[in-house]
# Entry
Amino acid sequence: MNLTIKDVRLYSAMSVLSRPIADATHDIPAIKFYIVEVETGDGVVGQGYLLSFHYSAGAIEGALKDIRRFMLERSYEINQTVKLRQDYDIETEYFGNTGLLRWAYGAVNVAMWDAWGKVLGQPVYKILGCNGRKIPVYGSGGWINYTLQELLDEVTAYKSRGFTAVKVKVGSPDMERDIERLTKCREALGKDVKIMMDANQGMSVSDAIKLSDTVRPLGIHWFEEPVSNKDFAGYELIRSKTGISLAMGEREYDCEALKELIRRNALDLWQPDLLRLGGVESWRNSAMVADAYQIPCLPHYYKDYDVPLLATIRNPFGAESFDWIDAIIDNKMIIDNGYAVQREGAGWGFTFKQEFMEVVK
# Structure
């Protein structure tokens, strides 16, 4: 069996659902991705992807090309994810091995795990050991630039599909607009669907406290990234003043913020981003740190990877669900009454369709 990686290929892709969206801190014109494909000497192919939107295409492609060159100049086997991480951290330390360079490694790591699963003929979650838990998912979106009707159409569509929780963006320049949107969502969804809110770090501490107190009667389930991910004192104050559950983690490249928020008793849900942390091993390590302090894991964005990974840890809370890649992969994830159905195919259990993949030259 030849496990040596003989080729690494790079592609870009765009969601068929691509449209301009906005949160409290960003205007996003398109929903785009990069896909890494690794191939072994025996022709086994694995894929991993990262969400790029419109940001820094030249830098992202450069980072991906750099790690491709690094891998092909050496000889790595498909299961040597830890060795590659150790070697590449040394290689990238001078210019900073967090940020885009970590994202690039994360995409490669995910692709290697896909290929390793295919070599073994098993889904990733079974290779790592399964907790036997059903993984709940929530419908995400609720973008700031949506009209009220577009927002209500989205959240009620989630409910009609069996979702039992939805997330809505907040942080509008006029807080009354946020309050109205959340109120109308509660009226449309009834009491049985959980509502969460996400400010994408776009609020001041005082406004986050005011909003939390004002919408308390709506029963907001948790508040994501109310303020800057570096404002640990702000998280501590918001939680102590309002009692609302706080979630964060998607901006982190390591566990330092998690540990500081734990020290301050200022966090309720940990939201690791698989790509920013650098892949499967780091994602699971961060979930274990959180679990040591009874903080559940509620990862950011990548449901097609996160649902299998949540099935391998002790304290999974749920996964975030977007439909963005569903039409451009061969096996979309099934959601049944608010729970994800694990794919049983080898690796991650899905592959991007060739007609949507554009070669990165």
Observations:
- The chain has a mean pLDDT of 97.
